[in-house]
Write a structure and sequence with these properties.
Length: about 130
């Protein structure tokens, strides 16, 4: 996608859906049914919970119970959701010159991989695929 204006929330939502289809199948299948939401910035409660000072420090967040902590008998308190934050993603896009599609894809991979308890090395390997 090429943009002649700053990508909107709707633009990033569309890009996220396309990027989700391009992540490794093993990850995609494991989080089937997880909502992907795009918001402008993380809310104050999220920043406080993660001890972050500025909303541009967080490009994405997987909200839900990590698989490493789930029980087969447990009932989820809330549905699993992946949040992508538009402004921090656009700031990183501008600062790094990274392809926006690749950046969104990598944020998705990063958040899903944390859900599985992957190491940073495993995440980097997944991001390099494709």
């Amino acid at each position: 996608m090429r943009f002649n204006h700053p990508p909107t929330v709707e633009d990033l939502q569309e890009l996220a859906e396309t990027a989700f289809a391009a992540i490794p199948e093993q990850l995609r299948e494991a989080v089937r049914g997880t909502a992907i939401l795009v918001e402008e910035v993380p809310d104050e409660a999220t920043l406080e919970a993660l001890d972050l000072q500025h909303p541009w420090e967080l490009t994405g967040l997987y909200r839900g119970t990590p698989l490493t902590e789930k029980s087969v008998l447990g009932v989820a308190a809330e549905p699993d959701m992946i949040f992508l934050y538009r402004e921090p993603i656009l700031v990183e896009w501008i600062e790094t010159g990274e392809d926006l599609f690749r950046l969104v894809r990598n944020v998705l991979i990063h958040e899903i991989a944390h859900h599985f308890g992957f190491s940073d090395d495993d995440i980097a390997r997944l991001e390099d695929e494709g």
